[in-house]
């Protein structure tokens, strides 16, 4: 099974959420397009068990900016039809770049990768003033395209009113709530992974 980790914006916590998912599900990790350093793959590698498989990016772009702009600087043409997910017998966590409508080229966006990889979405919603609007806009796009949303991961300070209205609109359960952590370590990731695994198994048992 493939799970596509996307978010309501940039710096929402996709990479941390991906590391937790990798540990919880015993999954492989893959970032199709990396723009700038340090790479998200290296971050994941430092946060998960050594036995987890981190697949190499298909495109590495030097500039830390939108993939379409970074690709133009590097004189690289990226088309989603040319992206090929690595083969694995394990679940695969695919991490996008920024939010759903971040452009990959002049015609395609990150959202177009989801059906290409036949993946389910895990949406990271970080909590801040304005995050309800950004979350609902992302969810509206997901619904309008008929994509399958596996669940939501909240990231940031607890706000029950914000979380509840987003969950109600999404129509799915919260997989995990990541608090503001002073330092992110393997131990912290493993602790959250155990919580996510329990929630994941509980939701599976409700079907």
TrEMBL record:
Entry annotation: catalytic residues: 31
Organism: Fulvivirga kasyanovii
Similarity comment text for this entry: Belongs to the dethiobiotin synthetase family.
Subunit details: Homodimer.
Superkingdom to which the source organism belongs: Bacteria
Binding-site residues, ATP: 11-16, 40, 95-98
Organismal lineage: Bacteria, Pseudomonadati, Bacteroidota, Cytophagia, Cytophagales
Known EC number: 6.3.3.3
Protein name stated in the entry: ATP-dependent dethiobiotin synthetase BioD
Gene behind this protein: bioD
Pathway: Cofactor biosynthesis; biotin biosynthesis; biotin from 7,8-diaminononanoate: step 1/2
SUPFAM superfamilies associated with the record: P-loop containing nucleoside triphosphate hydrolases
UniProt keyword terms in alphabetical order: ATP-binding, Biotin biosynthesis, Cytoplasm, Ligase, Magnesium, Metal-binding, Nucleotide-binding
Main location: cytoplasm
Cofactor: Mg(2+)
């Amino acid at each position: 099974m493939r799970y596509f980790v996307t978010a309501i914006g940039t710096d929402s916590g996709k990479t941390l959420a991906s590391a937790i998912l990798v540990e919880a599900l015993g999954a492989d990790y893959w970032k199709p397009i990396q723009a700038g350093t340090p790479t998200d793959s290296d971050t994941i590698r430092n946060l998960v068990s050594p036995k987890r498989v981190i697949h190499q990016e298909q495109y590495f772009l030097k500039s830390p900016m939108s993939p379409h702009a970074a690709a133009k600087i590097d004189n690289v043409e990226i088309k989603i039809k040319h992206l090929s997910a690595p083969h694995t017998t394990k679940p695969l966590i695919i991490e996008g770049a920024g939010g759903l409508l971040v452009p990959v080229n002049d015609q395609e966006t990150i959202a177009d990768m989801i059906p290409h990889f036949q993946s389910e979405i895990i949406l990271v919603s970080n909590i801040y003033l304005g995050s309800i609007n950004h979350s609902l806009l992302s969810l509206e796009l997901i619904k309008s395209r008929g994509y399958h949303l596996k669940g939501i991961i909240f990231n940031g300070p607890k706000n029950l009113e914000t979380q509840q209205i987003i969950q109600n609109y999404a129509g799915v359960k919260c997989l995990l709530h990541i608090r503001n952590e002073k330092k992110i370590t393997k131990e912290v990731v493993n602790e959250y992974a155990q919580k996510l695994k329990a929630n994941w198994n509980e939701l599976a048992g409700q079907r």
